[in-house]
Design a protein that fits this description.
The protein is built from 23 helices and 6 strands. The protein is mostly helical and about 500 residues long. Helix 6 packs parallel to helix 17, helix 8 runs parallel beside helix 10 and helix 8 packs parallel to helix 16.
Length: about 500
């Protein structure tokens, strides 16, 4: 159905999402003068894709590692491995996913709403769900949210018409392999299909959701790795992010992003209680359960990417309710405006600045590494230094390697002093570029500080303003100092490379 001026609501919603995307990268270009992603994690996926293309599931040739948080996403990034064009693939996938997701949202709005309310929803909901902000990160979260949306729209077709179509099948299959959080909604939808008298179809949908994940776990085990990616385990077992459901809920509730999810949860609760249409009530209930599950078991924050799919599916479930009932519509539209304002503010004042931080820190670290070809380096952020480089990278934080994760998290009585030094020695690292305050007494006693890379605020959300550069092998100190002296004058404004005598 066309909106004002003859533009369909689907096109209007997609244009709204695309406009936010353009704003993000215009700000990035204004702040650093070039294109850059705001997360080092993008480069982890690119490095994993480069490894896959070369025959190794890992970041170093011949050394298996599970640094990717998604089963499918690294495979989508394998074309043109190690080239500048490969670096643009996350941008291309996210832009395509963003526009498709915006278009689907607009089509859904067309089905339930008309007039000024429909135009408002098409313009505001892409911002209230932070579509452009998440797509700008370059990660798998936009594609995951799109798969969840496709699954829900296919689920509604089943509830309203009794048809099990391609959308439902594709969503159930793709959502879990894009991110593991997709398993919950996929199984809930499969269960409803089975309980509605389609036992065989519901069972097959559950199989589609679970078997690829199970096969991936077996593949990891066959490589000598844990059945769950180390990157996932490292973040789940972080000291500040307890795996206990109640503790995780309380932590989520104390975050602003958690309050946004709670607001969506409250609106969903009200929508369930006020719906007479049993199909709509069941549709909303399934989404309500998914949101509740995320509050207890999921993560909130980290550039607002973990809760993105929750906001998208909540928006889809709330659109029918926003089209009916004057009081509920007023509250819902006010909540959508508040959410849009919050994400616009955070993206402009915090998250977007992180692209500057990545450029001033991680890109400059990769420049240092490129001047020492083939020399193993130890780091705590592995992405940019692992991608498109020929030097072995020693992961000291455990996103790729279980031994690093266990050394810093699981040792009896806490990490053993000097654990990072021992691990770097065992892996053959000859120098290190790390956030020193992350390791404290874990740094090797024989490490010699030779330089610091400082990037004063604003740098958005990064681990530290200072990267400490150590020499681990005394025989290469002169080479490392020579590189630092040569590169220091050419660093971009805002980054300072200083030798330490």
């Amino acid at each position: 159905m066309p909106a004002r001026g003859g533009i369909s609501l689907a096109a209007l919603s997609a244009l709204s999402a695309g406009f936010g995307f353009a704003i993000w990268f215009a700000l990035t270009w204004a702040r650093i003068g070039t294109f850059e992603y705001p997360l080092d994690d993008v480069y982890i996926h690119l490095a994993m894709a480069e490894g896959i293309a070369g025959g190794t599931y890992g970041i170093n040739p011949g050394e298996p590692a599970s640094a990717a948080s998604s089963i499918l996403y690294p495979l989508l990034l394998t074309p043109f491995a190690g080239t500048d064009f490969q670096r643009l693939l996350p941008l291309a996938w996210n832009l395509a996913g963003l526009l498709t997701l915006g278009w689907l949202l607009g089509r859904w709005i067309e089905e339930w709403s008309t007039g000024a309310v429909a135009v408002f929803l098409a313009l505001v909901l892409p911002f209230a769900t932070n579509m452009a902000g998440i797509a700008s990160l370059g990660m798998e979260h936009t594609l995951h949210a799109l798969a969840m949306a496709v699954m829900l729209l296919g689920f509604w077709r089943f509830l309203s018409k009794g048809e099990i179509g391609l959308a439902l099948i594709a969503g159930v299959l793709l959502a879990p392999v894009l991110r593991f959080e997709g398993i919950g909604l996929a199984l809930a939808v499969s269960g409803v299909v089975a309980l509605r008298g389609h036992l065989r179809a519901g069972t097959m949908l559950a199989v589609l959701a679970l078997v690829p994940v199970a096969l991936f776990a077996l593949f990891l085990a066959s490589q000598g790795l844990d059945p769950v990616p180390s990157s996932v385990l490292a973040k789940l077992s972080a000291a500040s992010d307890s795996s206990d459901p109640l503790s995780r809920l309380l932590r989520n509730l104390f975050l602003v992003g958690g309050l946004v999810v709670v607001a969506a949860f409250v609106l969903l609760t009200a929508a369930i209680l006020n719906r007479e249409n049993q199909n709509l009530r069941l549709f909303t209930l399934v989404v309500w359960l998914a949101v509740l599950g995320h509050l207890f078991a999921g993560r909130i924050g980290w550039a607002a990417r973990y809760e993105h799919y929750v906001l998208v599916i909540a928006a889809l479930a709330l659109v029918p309710a926003l089209a009916r009932g004057r009081a509920f519509r007023a509250v819902g539209m006010a909540a959508a405006l508040a959410g849009a304002a919050y994400f616009l503010w955070m993206n402009a004042t915090v998250y977007n600045w992180t692209a500057r931080g990545v450029y001033l820190q991680h890109v400059q670290m990769a420049r240092i590494e490129a001047e020492l070809p083939g020399v193993p380096v130890a780091v705590n952020d592995i992405g940019r230094v692992a991608w498109a480089q020929d030097a072995p990278v020693v992961d000291l934080w455990g996103l790729a390697y279980a031994d690093a994760r266990r050394a810093r998290q699981e040792a009896d009585g806490g990490p053993v002093p000097g654990w990072a030094g021992a691990l770097a020695d065992a892996k053959g690292a000859r120098y290190a570029m790390v956030y020193a305050d992350w390791f404290k007494d874990g740094i090797g006693t024989d490490w010699q500080l030779v330089a610091t890379l400082t990037t004063p605020a604003p740098i958005g959300i990064l681990g530290s303003e200072t990267v400490s550069i150590y020499v681990l092998d005394p025989t290469m100190e002169d080479d490392l100092r020579s590189v630092i002296e040569r590169l220091a004058p050419s660093l971009p404004e805002g980054a300072t490379l200083t030798q330490v005598n």
